[in-house]
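Data availability (excerpt). The following record was deposited with the supplementary files.
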Amino acid sequence: MKECPRCLFTDDFATIGEKQCNYCDLHDQLEGQANPENLPKEIQRIKNKGKSRQYDCIMGISGGLDSSTLLYMAVKVWGLRPLVIHFDNGWNNDIATANMHNLVTKLSVPYIVFGTDTEEYNRLNMAFLNAGLPDADIPNDIAMTKLMYDTAHKYGIKYILNGHCFRTEGSTPKGWTYMDAKYIRSVYSSMTGKELKNYPLFTFKDQLYYAWKGIKNVRPFHYLSIDERQKYEQQMIDLTGWQSYGGKHCENIYTEFVGSYYLPEMHHIDKRIVYISALVRSQQITKKEGKMKMNAPVEFDLNKLRGYTDEIKGYLNNFESNQKQRMDFDRYNFRKYRLFIWLLAKMKVVPYTFYVKYCK
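Predicted structure:
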């Protein structure tokens, strides 16, 4: 495989040019758009829009470093009045749960925890595994998005704060993670013979409706230097006693299983390459150091999967035969709405990376 001259991506999922890959191009494009002088203006717009309301923004937390630091900065640095929500899908890491409790307590912020129909939700997870699909953890992200927008609309909130940062997280290849409500419905019905009833599904119609309502998505970390962000990370840790729960996105046991075991073992996908390549592109580490990090072993104990260990092992044992019988599932044709989604990205209703991934 040909490797990108700049980062660690290879041509089995990236387009490699003479100097760098298309994901490095995207990184540079986002870097060019990230003018630090625009952040104070963005914060002031959020305050002005929410002046007469109980809350001026909404955000989700997971107990992870990104969302915890963002909430700390929203309250202590920018003086915002956020409503905080969390989607508890039944797989929370205990350390992450303690981090969330300490954070909202120390910052005295309103906090809503949403539960789920556990049986249906896990049946959906198992459907993805049974189908042998790589994007086995997208049900969590889609559900959180739905709950975020619904709650924002309920309370008249016009701004969602998002803790993603292209300098530390990069962008996941489309073939690894496909965010699509029609796709989720199709996988579930095809693999179970049932229809989703209670799962909070965020549809394209929802996206259009909330765009019409003027709810915007803001990623403040895009405007911050790495040094500045790390300074506030440490302040948050000092205040709340935040503790590490392991690797990237391991605040949720099922997410950890997908990233640390299922993808590497079944699909030969190591998602660490996305995060580590982002660090290389932003010159936080060298390419040589990045390769050393990629060579570090990752382990996951399947017994952590609680009562689903045997069922999941069964899907893993039948993975090759399931792959041979792999089905085609329904999906949205986002390219059909390319111009409209581009406009939504310009309006900050959807992330620009969504437009690049699904419409270009």
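Summary of structural features: The mean pLDDT is 92.
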